[in-house]
Design goal:
This protein starts with a helix and ends with a helix. The chain is about 15% helix and about 55% strand. It is elongated and about 155 Å long. By secondary structure, the protein is of the alpha+beta class. The longest helix has about 40 residues, at about 1-40. The protein has a 41-stranded mixed β-sheet that branches. It has four domains: about 20-125 and about 140-220, no CATH class; about 370-490, no CATH class; about 505-610 and about 620-655, no CATH class; about 665-810, no CATH class.
Length: about 800
């Protein structure tokens, strides 16, 4: 028995020694074999630090651990290592490997960086040397598990400008190569991932997880994507498909998502889209189902299509605290060629959306994403406040009102120039606006009520009625809009034709309250009003500055750069006026042109309401009487519509009846000079003259002011700077002359007898009111009078011969040639 035990112990000892020798053999020889074979197989330089081998306890399983591993790029791109790893572990079954079964049980990569890139003709990871074996022997290779821990991954596809950059705390990859097929499984988590295409960031510093399986056929050059799951933040997508990458490359990938919240979907959109929606908040559910499909070789590009289903979604305008609730919509987006957006189209069927009393439904279509053709066919019943908030209007605060829209709306948008395409606006339907009220901030206007009933077809738009009530103004407009298809164009040819009646119109209320804003508006547009018009107008109680008219009737015309009323009848100033009035753009300013026939106008009110025509020499306090005649006035107005006095021209052929000059400063000083108090208040029955204003100077031709006590013959000039020069012939009755002690002056030969039995003095008056010089100048004044009498005699003789009339001709200056624009 003891002998038997001794023999058994000896056998076990020999067996242990034998087994230990086998293990020791593999342990001491596999290390140099691995290093040598790696360098033989790779076409790039590989550097490693320490190498350690384990396997005694797990034989025949062998583990090899490399530290500080670096592998160069096959083609330099990043100017970095293709792979850097603090630790790379390799696990194999050496028995299976010895038998020719190329199976790696596991690879573990820790603390690594992987930089991969694909080019048009190649990549930076082609590190395996080409095989020289021309035999047809089948080859099989498998990595059961490749695990990545705490690794940084970067990938670029230069032909498409696709980039991906992320960090994976854990990834597991399986790889099997058999014949021409490669089977790849990937399960990965990526943190702070960046995915961009052509510079647009689609995943920006977000978490991403992928669970997919791929089959790659290198002979037929295609990749099959098995049903896979992708999760970006909270958005889950399922995808599958096939990609061919040979000479006749194409792609066919389908994707869908589980029921995802709209806010999650928005969180993964590019910032270029989300920034434009920063004032909007979406909450709800959305389902996507789409595909990318088409040829990709040569100039071919694949197509993109996605269908969407939105349910129970709320849209909120954040700063206005208003929302549309319960939105239900379906639609799709189709891009047959992703490089040709002009072939793209989109549809959306909005089944339901509401917000309190707001309801919206309809079909939306968009075609040609380069120059979008947008149409909407539906109905809307909205609060005006909701509509203005959606339009992001901050100048009008709505208190009440509703808008009802039913019809088909369309337009074409020129995306390259960010304007509507000319004549692209179409509408077939109706718009009803009821009881709109609110406050306009600038100019400050309180809108009490506005009602609009509008209808349109593809040929014309009809304003059935527009009633408005703001401040103390009320009005009504009826008519049509011709060429309405260009209504929103920058250079619109649309024209409103109709009838307009307004009561208590105060034009001053329509100007902005801020001069700065008014100036900005004036300089930013070449147009006075946004649309052409031809309106038969009837204004009652019209006010502009201090001018008040009981009524104005005429046709209002505008070609956007000018506003005119060529034949307006005005009842104002206790009389009537027929006038042609026009305001037009004049460079950066405006030109006001007035031609008027006046009848029985109260001259005191005329001067008062027109601010004494921007001069202080002779004002409403100095004049009384009834004015008739013809007036021509042209003046340049600045950007705030204030007159530029050096650019004022006026000519008036006037008759003043039952008038008076009262306390007119030159006559008051003349009164003191000639010692005749009656000159301080000169009354007359009729005064005729043609007065001209030009270059800030009033030109007064010779005129006669007559009454029972004295006759005043006067001519001269008077500047806006209040410098005057008058030549005066003053004739008084003998009784008044005696009272004024003119007899002594007659002896000094400064006064002479006149044909009516009185005395006449000839006087020159020159200077400013503060320094007015008055002197007798018989020779100068008489010469001027003699010349005027000669001209009148010549006119009389020409009239007798039929060569003219006794009427005074009013010369009209060609104002356009006076000052260049």
């Amino acid at each position: 028995m003891k002998k038997t035990l001794k023999i058994l112990a000896a056998v076990l000892f020999v067996l242990i020694l034998f087994l230990s020798g086998v293990v020791y053999y593999f342990y001491t020889n596999i290390k140099p074999i691995l290093v040598t074979e790696i360098n033989k197989a790779l076409a790039v330089e590989v550097n490693v630090g320490d190498i350690s081998i384990s396997g005694i306890r797990d034989f025949p399983n062998l583990g090899v651990k490399f530290t500080n591993v670096t592998i160069n790029e096959s083609t330099p791109f990043y100017q970095k290592k293709l792979l850097e790893a603090a630790e790379l572990s390799l696990f194999v079954d050496i028995i299976r490997l010895y038998k020719g079964e190329y199976v790696i049980d596991g690879i573990v990569l820790r603390g690594g960086q992987l930089y991969v890139a694909d080019f048009i003709n190649g990549n930076n990871y082609d590190i395996i040397k080409p095989s020289t074996d021309s035999s047809n022997t089948t080859l099989s290779f498998e990595i059961k598990s490749l695990k990545l821990y705490d690794c940084k991954i970067r990938y670029e596809h230069t032909p498409s400008r696709f980039k991906m950059n992320g960090f994976t705390p854990y990834s597991q990859i399986g790889l099997k190569y058999k014949d021409e097929n490669t089977f790849l499984s990937i399960k990965t988590q990526l943190e702070s991932t960046l995915v961009s295409l052509e510079g647009n960031k689609y995943v920006n510093k977000q978490n991403l997880s992928i669970n997919t399986a791929l089959t790659i056929n290198t002979l037929k050059e295609f990749v099959v994507i098995d049903p896979s799951n992708i999760k970006i933040q909270e958005v889950k997508l399922s995808t599958r498909g096939k990609v061919s990458y040979g000479k006749l490359s194409d792609i066919d990938i389908a994707f869908t998502n589980e029921n995802t919240t709209t806010q999650s979907l928005l969180s993964i959109l590019p910032s270029s889209i989300t920034e434009s929606m920063s004032n909007l908040q979406l909450k709800g559910e959305v389902i996507l189902d789409g595909s990318i499909k088409g040829k990709t070789y040569g100039r071919n590009q694949p197509g993109f299509e996605v269908s969407f289903d939105i349910k129970n979604t709320d849209l909120t305008v954040i700063d206005k605290n208003i929302s549309l609730n319960g939105i239900i919509a379906k639609g799709n987006v189709k891009i047959p060629n992703i490089s040709q957006l002009n072939s793209a189209s989109a549809t959306c069927k909005l089944s339901y959306a509401s917000s309190g009393n707001n309801q919206l439904s309809g079909d939306i279509t968009v075609s040609d994403f380069d120059t979008p053709h947008i149409t909407w066919d539906g109905e809307a019943n909205l609060d005006a406040a909701f509509l203005f908030a959606l339009a992001n209007n901050t100048n009008f605060e709505t208190t009440n009102g509703r808008v009802q829209v039913a019809g088909q709306f369309g337009l074409v948008y020129d995306a390259a120039h960010e304007v509507l395409l000319e004549n692209s606006l179409t509408y077939n339907g109706s718009v009803i606006l009821e009881k709109l009220s609110g406050t306009l901030q600038n100019p400050e206007i309180k809108l009490n009520n506005l009602n609009l009933n509008l209808s349109a077809n593809n040929q014309k738009m009809v304003i059935n009625s527009l009633d408005f009530d703001y401040n103390k103004t009320t009005g009504n407009l009826k008519g049509i809009i011709e060429n309405y298809t260009s209504l929103l164009d920058e250079n619109t040819s649309a024209q409103i034709v109709g009838d307009l009646s307004v009561t208590n119109l105060n034009v001053n209320e329509l100007f902005t309250t801020s001069a700065t804003e008014s100036e900005e508006q004036s300089t930013s547009s070449a147009f006075l009003i946004p649309v052409n018009c031809e309106l038969k107008t009837d204004f009652t109680n019209f006010v502009y500055n201090d001018f008040h008219a009981e009524s104005m009737t005429g046709t209002l015309l505008s070609d956007r750069t000018s506003i005119s009323m060529p034949n307006v009848y005005i009842k104002a100033l206790e009389g009537t006026t027929t006038a042609a009035i026009k305001v037009k753009k004049w460079g950066e300013n405006h030109l006001l042109d007035i031609q008027a026939d006046l009848s029985s106008i109260n001259i005191t009110q005329l001067f008062k309401q027109f601010n004494n025509f921007e001069q202080s020499e002779i004002t409403d306090k100095h004049l009384s009487g009834t004015l008739s005649g013809k007036i021509i006035a042209k003046v340049i107005l600045d950007k705030q519509f204030e007159p530029i006095l050096p650019k004022l021209y006026a000519k008036a052929d006037i008759i003043i009846e039952n008038g008076a000059l009262i306390n007119y400063e030159p006559l008051r000083q003349l009164s003191k000079f000639v010692n005749i108090k009656e000159l301080e208040k000169v009354r007359f029955k009729t005064l005729k003259n043609t007065i001209e204003i030009f270059d800030e100077t009033i030109y007064i031709p010779r005129m006669m002011i007559e009454n029972s006590a004295l006759n005043l013959e006067l001519e001269g000039t008077h500047t806006f700077g209040n410098y005057m020069r008058y030549s005066i012939g003053l004739s008084v009755a003998e009784l008044l002359a005696t009272k004024a002690n003119w007899i002594a002056k007659k002896a000094e030969k400064r006064i002479e007898n006149n044909s009516k039995g009185g005395l006449t003095a000839y006087i020159i008056m020159e200077g400013t009111p503060d320094d007015l010089k008055i002197r007798y100048d018989k020779a100068t004044v008489k010469e001027n009078v003699k010349e005027e009498v000669k001209k009148e005699k010549q006119n009389f003789l020409r009239a007798l011969k039929g060569e003219g009339t006794l009427e005074t001709n009013v010369e009209i200056k060609d104002y356009d040639n006076v000052w260049d624009e």
